[in-house]
Fold:
Amino acid sequence: MTSGNTVVIYNPFAGAFRHRQRKHWLNESVEVLRAQGGNVEVRPTTGARTAPQIARQAIEDGATLILAAGGDGTVNEVMNGIVFSDVPMGILPAGTANVLAVELGMGTRMVQVANNLSTYIPERIAIGKLQMGRQSDPRYFMLMAGIGLDADIVYKLDPAMKNSLGKIAYWVAGFSQLGRRIPEFNVTVNGQSYRASFALASRVRNYGGDLEIARSISLLDDDLELVLFSGESSFGYLKYMLGVAFGRLSGMRGVTVVRATSLSCSSITDSRVYLQVDGEHAGRLPFEIELVPRALTLLVPPDFRTRRPLSVPQAAWTTSPTR
Structure:
């Protein structure tokens, strides 16, 4: 799937490519792709939020495959320029968590992925659409939207600490929340209203590269798995984290899991509640999310469909609406 005109888009300002070794891996990966046949062009981004336009221009220039080289943030930006086109998208992982690479089971070694890309197959998948207001442009996400606790961590995370510590930086920032009040907000889904201090609307099982919170969803599904955590005490999240670590969120008090194709979130108090999509800050409440079916063609390993998780009965996961 690498013949034709391939365009590789990467962010030279991202932490992933500030290391000389990773730049070498990118160059080596490009040579591997060229050896497989076809034309391969590398187009770096020129600033924040420029990847979507670069991807759109590549399509206008006749690209038959677009590869996002980098982490999940770069993948998200490139994807926003490809959505609704017929041009397939692939990834060359090089970021902090590489959630998509782990989810697809392709590994996180860029050169190895480049060697295997010729065996990958296209899958037409649904993506999430985030609408912050009627006058604003929508933003699309492939992996997840996090509201509340984790988005607050993403918003306040020191970029220098992220670059130096990688995924450990998120754990440090998370534990710094202990002792703080976490504001709750309203989530309306499937005609019912819930209160939560952290909500995860996910298209993938993998979370942060190490954990599974939404345990039965797949990119091949046509809905979202929404996991809601209630309670304003940050210490309550120690219990929730144990439930995540041991795969025992099902039936846990304060946790609600539902399947949905749309949802909306609004504030309860004057506290600012933030939102992240695919690991990047995306704004704050209020907003709406809906799933858009068959909106993107993604290259996946040939065995990805066979590794689809078994469905978990919704009744076993869902608790009563939070008052």
Summary: Residues 312-323 have pLDDT under 50 and may be disordered. The chain has ten helices and 18 strands. Residues 5-119 form a domain with the Rossmann fold fold (CATH 3.40.50.10330). The chain has two domains: 5-119, 128-317.
